[in-house]
Amino acid sequence: MSCKVRGMEQTSALGRPRSEHARVAVLDAALRLARRDGYAAVTIKGIAEDAGVGRQTVYRWWTSKGAILLEAVSEIARRAALPEPTGDPERDLRELLRASFALTRDLGPVIAGLMADATHDPEFLGALQERLLVPRRKVVGDILERGRRAGRLGDAVDIALVTDMIWGTMWYRIQSRHAPVDARLADELAAAAMKLAGAGERQTARGRTAEE
Length: 212
Known about the structure:
- The protein is an all-alpha fold.
- It has 2 domains: 1-79, Tetracycline Repressor, domain 2 (Orthogonal Bundle); 82-211, Orthogonal Bundle (Tetracycline Repressor, domain 2), CATH 1.10.357.10.
- It is built from 9 helices and no strands.
């Protein structure tokens, strides 16, 4: 079933503004049903009934359950607290990942459903990238870039590769469910990312130069 995302903007095609109360009710209902019944069981009819709005209201602003759930998940991810920069890239990354991974306890199956829909719907994949994947990659990239500029990471650090390792591990565990996405994984990935990013290389090189 297609998961087109047309209609997710703040006004309908006719220019009618969305009711914020109804919008929040729909997003909350979609998440509640997905958590209770599973992503595959969620329907527009069920969302509308649970939210106390008409189906025509839902279809006026979204074209699929995937579009609704993507908006709901994206808003939660965007509101997730980002750690204040401390000057320690490993600490900043660890705190970010702990906060992000904690969200997957409730949202993991929903995110897996969104990813599954995106595999056969290029338009929905584009929306998933824009609204969820790219912003989450950016927050990790910003931490690594700050560390590189501060001399805490190697000059040749491949930020895109390190970011792929971090989020790729999370996505794989969400999909396969062979191991948890938890605080321990956050700590392990933060430490592994620092090694891959060459943490301490500059300091070691400077020390050797000074000795020589």
